[in-house]
Write a structure and sequence with these properties.
- The protein is an alpha/beta fold and 127 residues long.
- It is 28% helix and 20% strand.
- Helix 3 links the parallel strand 3 and strand 4.
- Helix 2 packs parallel to helix 3.
- The protein is globular, with a radius of gyration of 14 Å.
Length: 127
Amino acid sequence: MAAPLVFSIVESLSHPDFSRLFQRLGLREARFHSMRKAIAALKKQQPDWVIAEFFYGFGNNYAGANVGNLDVFLSSLQKYAPGARVIVLVDANNRPHVAKLQARFELHALIAQPAGEADLETLLGGG
């Protein structure tokens, strides 16, 4: 049986590099630097875990149906990997808006930024 797969969606410099933690826990990592690439990969391989930052749509980019940067990916995740557990990293500026995302999608956990390995290790079953 293959090791569990983690999709790391890294869209900013504030996203910590958890690669060593994933290796230590025996997890495979697929790292993406754009939602478009993550969605394309989702159609080919289904993750067990997703780690991504949440950015609220303060501007016009997310006007209407979307709350922020994760909506389209999480909608696709429901179709292609409904059992995947989603861990969202969120900073203080975006924290007041994450409830809107939680109202639309099931999130396994929220971690306040700046996040460290200890914040994630227990959630992934390593501690």
